Amino acid sequence: MKTVPVSTTINGDAAEFICAPDETLLDVLRNRMGLTGAKEGCGTGDCGACSVTLDGRLVCSCLVLGVEAEGAEIATIEGLATGDGLHPLQQAFIDHAALQCGICTPGILVAAKALLDKNPDPSETELRYWLAGNLCRCTGYDKIIRAVQAAARQMRSA
Amino acid sequence: MAFDTEPKRDFKVVGRRVARPDGIDKVTGRALYGADMSAPGMLMGAILRSPHAHAEIVSIDVTAAVALDGVKAVVTGADFADAMDAATADVRDNCLARGKVLYDGHAVAAVAAASGAIARAALDLIKVEYRVLPSVTDVDLAMRADAPVVQAGRAVEVVPVGLSENVTDHCEFGHGDPEAGFAAADLVIDRSFTTAATHQGYIEPHACLASMGPDGKADLWCTTQGQWAVRTACSAILGMRASQLRVTASEIGGGFGGKTTVFIEPVALALSRKAGRPVKIVMSRTEVFRATGPTVASSIDVKIGMTKEGRITAGTATLRYTGGAFPCGTVAMGAQAAFAAYDLAAVRTFGWNALTNRPKEAAYRAPGAPQAIYAVESVVDELCQKLALDPLEVRLLNAAREGTRSSYGPTFEAIGLEATLEAAKAHPHYAAPLAAGQGRGLSCGFWFNFGGNTSVSLTINTDGTVGITEGNPDIGGSRAAISQMAAEELGIPYEQVRTVIADTSSLGHNDVTDGSRVTFAVGLAVIKAARDAIAKMCARVARIWGIDPEAVEWVDGAARPTGPNAGTFPPMTLAEIAALSFKTGGPIAGHHESNADGAGVSFGVHLVDVEVDRETGATKVLRYTVFQDAGKAVQPDYVEGQMQGGAVQGIGWALNEEYIHDAEGHLLNPGFLDYRVPVASDLPPIEAVILEIPNPGHPYGVRGVGETPIVPPLAAIANAVSRAAGVRLTALPMSPPRVLKALTAQG
Ligand code: FES
Ligand code: FES
Description:
The structure holds two protein chains of two kinds.
Chain A: E1 4-10, E2 13-19, H1 25-32, E3 51-54, E4 57-60, E5 73-75, H2 88-95, H3 105-118, H4 124-130, H5 142-157
Parallel strand pairs in A: 1-5
Antiparallel strand pairs in A: 1-2, 3-4, 3-5
Helix pairs in contact in A: 2-5
Chain B: H1 23-28, E1 43-49, E2 55-61, H2 63-67, E3 71-76, H3 86-95, E4 100-101, E5 107-113, H4 116-123, E6 127-132, H5 139-143, E7 167-175, H6 178-183, E8 187-195, E9 207-212, E10 218-222, H7 227-238, E11 245-249, H8 265-275, E12 279-282, H9 285-291, E13 297-306, E14 312-322, H10 330-337, E15 347-354, H11 369-386, H12 391-398, H13 417-426, H14 428-431, E16 438-447, E17 452-460, E18 466-470, H15 478-490, E19 497-501, H16 518-545, E20 552-555, E21 558-561, E22 572-573, H17 574-579, E23 588-596, E24 602-612, E25 619-629, H18 636-655, E26 686-691, H19 713-725, E27 731-732, H20 736-746
Parallel strand pairs in B: 1-12, 8-27, 10-11, 14-15, 18-19, 25-26
Antiparallel strand pairs in B: 1-5, 2-4, 2-6, 3-5, 7-15, 8-13, 9-10, 9-12, 13-14, 16-24, 17-18, 17-23, 20-21, 21-22, 24-25
Helix pairs in contact in B: 7-8, 10-11, 11-19, 15-16, 18-19
The structure holds FE2/S2 (inorganic) cluster (2 copies).
């Protein structure tokens, strides 16, 4: 299959890649761009481990084609921490032990950030429904919810 | 130094909620898991799987696949070694079938090619001629004499007349005279239950990268709970010497027992050997469901007698488990665990395993126990309902305690069941009011806990920091706990210790991360390794001071003179000793190697409130509290995490998760859409209450905590549903259609 050149922005930096027309954005990020922070738990949109944002919208990158990223701004877990340190969500996940194996963590952090960008003060129910697309098999979600709530509180008071 | 007459009770570092050392890597995406590694010249592997549940392989023609542009190697079961023990041969034949395919999804052949797309295209070109055979997936049908025989020649010697040769394992435990016990009861209840097979459901699929050179030396990177177990299995299956294979465990994205064996690793090695290039294989989610895990499926009869005061007079259970297409000893653990929570004068359990055309069972958190204890705890609860007794008081009345002869033989040492039950009784949850249509359930849970072979190395760095090399993949924060125990013993800050996990060439053998063994056994080993290093440091200081080594003691991270003839010297800290080490005899390190026992059994009690929607049959979990004895919680956050995570896996098992097969044995739901694990919006907060009844077998009193929490949810929820909806279900999962059917039948 002929490959297609694509121009995008990834975590704020201009990025160019070529990919096959049927190649997913997740495969492009992981296999062509060396960004293995997004994980493939299912490849069918059921687990959320591959979550990234595309022009600010939360997507499962396993359900997006690489060619659809043309001209778009992509944000991945690798861009969450800035030069001066961890994002409050990342710090809260460590402080509240919101990860065990950590395979779901990148996707959950990207999804939680997308929520807090829109709604800085979600209720626990809103939070649980927003994260319903992100499977975590280790934690039972309790500490994840506490961590996101703590980060949201801190971000509101900042 | 008089160590360990009593477990230590005062701690400086142990018990603190420290930050885990791998935290930053895991919140930034930097941590490398199984599928995240690449190698120059790497090929991608793909595996052809059987579309049939049971068939003879008449022929495999790979000619067209080999001829495809970009294909570098094709392997089948014929590429593996022949001679090995029966258990390893089963693992081998599960990785690539020999002669017959035994379940839907059984691997048949594999390809390595320049890209994943080419490898998958090549699979379509492999021609396999099958002769389809009748299949069986139900355990009760598989035990009948007229059942299709899954594998001939595997039957256990004691198969009773009239049963199929699918019966591969049998066991029996207990003591006393159950018949006399039943005769003395005021009420005897006899019930039959079934539980569906469930999958561990780790979010990271199996993945590995194998590289073998022309000299036969190989490196393997893979996601696993035990790199030495991988090396043992792979070197046997490939016909290699162990020293020629180095296995490195990646960060692991969940295992729960399912990554204690191999599936793709020998295949990737065989492909790499043939192609002369590195080969990476990553399973799809569908492959994970079809060909890895799951648990046993079960069919269980339980009979229990009780007096009207609530004393259990006798209990018996017959467990029929199927571990899929290969012999499986898991039923023995179920038969031992079934009545472990009770102090009984008469108890007897019988276990049978039968072959079926299902994937080969893999361990899942307390393997075999949840099913057995679900059945027992359901009957205990029904007795309480019928005799109008408080279910918690009845458990307390019958609880196993120190000195109880357990239902499976050994006499219990100090155990925490009674304290755990008392904690549940005293908790506000137990007395909280319930609305109409809601019900509260409770169940006890139990797990044996393992110790096992462990090897740890501890180095005193010249700058006064400490490095620990251990061999157990960290699934839930164990590196933090290991560092804490080392810091505690050495008397230095946690931040000065770094724990890394070694490959198989860098340390002695370590058993897999299973049996809730790591914090217990690796912790024990690291404490002993620290004591070894302390003894060496004290000897160095004795030489510097010119006194006897016995006249030097270790207090708060420093050597001090002790005793009448020691003289007076200012204490020498670990950092000072370390800085001088090259001048006092060379590098300083401590080691410990042992086969640890004394793990100490673990008990838990779960309380749950549910509401059943009478229109849809859906069960909503409203409130959930977990009580468990941790002996000593080294990092309480991660102990709570085990309790919460295990409880939620149990909730999924109780309410939704199941392997569903059609009449021909095809798996109908190999994906997260149709195999529904709990999501955040299904659940309430999970409260975790830790009790600390020290384990006499560990210097700090630590007990394993990882497995027990998956045991109680099954019965706790069944008991709550029974009280909420007025119907008792005897089949798991209690999915909405099943509950609705029961409600309809009730009228
Ligand atoms: S990998 Fe994309 S949702 Fe699971
Ligand atoms: S921490 Fe393991 S899946 Fe979430």
